[in-house]
Amino acid sequence: MQELSVKKHSWPSNINLFMDLSPEELVELNQQLTLATCKAGKIFYMPNDSGELLYLLMKGFVKLYHISSNGKKIIVSTCGPGSFFGEMSLVGQGIHSTFAEAVNECVFCVMSRVDVERLIREKPSVAFRFVQALGHRLKDIESRLGEIAFKSIPYRLASLLIELDKQQGSKGFVKGYTHEDFSEMLGTNRETVSQILKDFKTDGLVDTGRKRVKVLNYAKLKSMATE
Q1: Which neighbouring-strand residues pair with 43?
Q2: CB neighbours (10 Å) of residue 151?
Q3: Terminus-to-terminus CA distance in the chain, angstroms?
Q4: Of 44, 45, 99, 40, which Cα lies nearest the Cα of 68?
Q5: What is the pLDDT of residues 29-63, one digit of tens each?
Q6: Rounded to the nearest 10 degrees, what angle do helices 190-202 and 153-168 cross at?
Q7: Residue 128 contacts residue 136 (beta carbons within 8 Å)
Q8: Model pTM greater than 0.70?
Q9: What is the per-residue pLDDT across 53-105, written as a single tens digit (0 to 9) for each?
Q10: Residue 122 exposure: Cα atoms within 13 Å on the Cβ side
C-alpha cells in the first residue's frame, strides 16, 4: 500500500460524508488524514475480523461479498468513489460480516473508531450523512435480495447494468467487469450470464467487449429493470 501526497484544498469535499462541512473544517480534516492507494484484489477485511476502521473511498470500486459453504461468492454491495465502507462493524458487534475487496486500483483513507465517533458527536451534518448512507446501503441490499427472490436473471442483469452505468457515470458504458463478476453480483453462474449477454447483443440491447458492455438500447433495459 502506497501513501499519496495530498493537496489541502481537494479531496475531503468529494466524500459524501463530508459534503456539508465548511471549507475551514475540510482543511482541518485534510490535515488529520492521509490518502493511500492499493491494487485490484486487495482484501481490506474478512468476516470475523475485528473492525475499528472506517474506509473512505476516493477512487475505484470495492465489492462487499459473502462466500457460501460451497465456495460460491455472492456480492451484496459495491462501493464507488465518494462512498465509505466498514461502517457495519462500527455500529454493530465490532466485527465484519463480509469480505471487502478492491475491484480495481483504489485511492482511499481510513478513520479510526475514535475519530469517527468524535466527528459524529461534533458535526451533526456528518452524523446525518452517516445515518442516511446506512439507510441507503440497507435499502440497496434489500432491493438486491428482492430481485434474487422474485426476478428472472435477464431482468436482474438489465437492472445491474443500469445500476453500474449510473455508478460509473460513463454514459452507456459499463467497464471493468468480467462475466464472472456479473455472475457473482447476481448469484448465478458465469455461463448463464454469458448466454444472456449474447441474447442481449442479438436483440440489439448491448454490445460487448473485454471487460466492457456498451448499452445500445437504454430505454429497453430500463424498462426490463423496472418491470
Answers
A1: 101
A2: 17
A3: 44
A4: 99
A5: 888 888 899 999 999 999 988 888 999 999 998 99
A6: 80
A7: no
A8: yes
A9: 999 999 998 999 888 777 778 888 888 889 999 987 777 667 888 899 998 89
A10: 10
**Cell 475485528 identifies what position?**
50
Residue 7 predicted with pLDDT over 70: no
> Which position has the higher pLDDT, 39 or 148?
39
Instruction: Decide: 95 and 51 in contact? Cβ < 8 Å.
Output: yes
